[in-house]
Amino acid sequence: MTDAEIQVEDVLHEEPQGMFGYFKVKGTAGDRLQMVGWAFADHAAVSAVEVVAEGKTIARTVPATPRPDVAETFPQSPSSLTSGFELEIEASGSGRSELGVEAVFAGGDRHSLGSLTVDVSRARGSRLPWRANRA
Question: Is residue 128 pLDDT above 50, yes or no?
């Protein structure tokens, strides 16, 4: 059992040019935050979705989960069918942070999907960093 609690204070979505994507907080439990979403582009493959805090990648996943709902909305884009992602991050300290959510392309280009502001309260602990948990 953990002595931490995560409060999501704000979520900002961006509409990156040249691609499509969306994310949402699926839930929080103690010091863990779960996110789901989708990301794809017609011009290039999205090789990863990353969560970034203070300029450092704290979680990374590959969009590969089937999303028939997204494919139905964007039938002209074959990559929309497997554009889904899910990830979980774990706070290792306490405090307020802004987390960026970014789509990364094979060539290294990055596009912001948005950000979220979270506050981690803990009975004891230090300032964040975050730890990634991979399923």
Answer: no
Strand order from edge to edge, sheet including 20-29: 20-29, 32-40, 84-91, 130-133
**What topology is assigned to 4-133 in CATH?**
Immunoglobulin-like (2.60.40)
Q: Are strands 130-133 and 84-91 parallel, antiparallel or unpaired?
A: antiparallel
CA distance 51 to 99: 6
* Bridge partners, residue 127, by sequence: 94
Amino acid residing at 91: A
pLDDT in the model for residue 132: 53
Domain boundaries, the chain: 4-133
Q: Percentage of residues in the chain with pLDDT exceeding 70?
A: 87
Q: Which residues contact 123 (CB under 8 A, 6 or more apart)?
A: 3
Q: In 14-109, at which residue ranges do the beta strands (DSSP E only) sit?
A: 20-29, 32-40, 46-53, 56-61, 84-91, 95-105
